[in-house]
Amino acid sequence: TESPIPAGYLGTATLYAAGYVAAILAVGIAAFQRRELYEQQTTYLPGVVSLLTWAGRLAALGCLLAAAVLLSLPEFHDAAGLGLAGGLLAAAVAGWLLWGAFGRGARWSWWTAAVLAAAFLARAVVGTLFPSAAEALLLRGSTGMLYVRIAGSAVVLALLLLPKTRRHFRPEGRGRVA
Asked: Alpha-carbon distance 59 to 53, whole Å?
């Protein structure tokens, strides 16, 4: 039988990867430290947009990591497990591209993020108000988790509706947020 990967080995591999990334970044910083790079356009990215962009990209990386973990576990090497891993990989790629476009100010990405936040909020509210519907909506966990989902979705939706955030996605207002 196959034995699980020891936690110590995973920790060592993670530290090695982090050290390798830090070394590559240090070489890049050293190479460009004394150069003046030409800046085509000065843009200002509102803090809320930056926060949502990186939170979305971290979620996409989480999907990628979850897919990698599923592919490494032998009990998920059936059609359902491979389908789930493929869906997670597709979500990771789509999420990375969506949140990258969001950070650049693509208007369609704002609408997509707003619709997704509203859908997650509605799903959690319906699951809370109608406990029998929670299983049909694939909402598992305690009532407290439903409240966390409601709060998280409501916060994201509120952040998307802030004037500074919306202004970042107007063609004439891009880069000139007061």
From this structure: 10
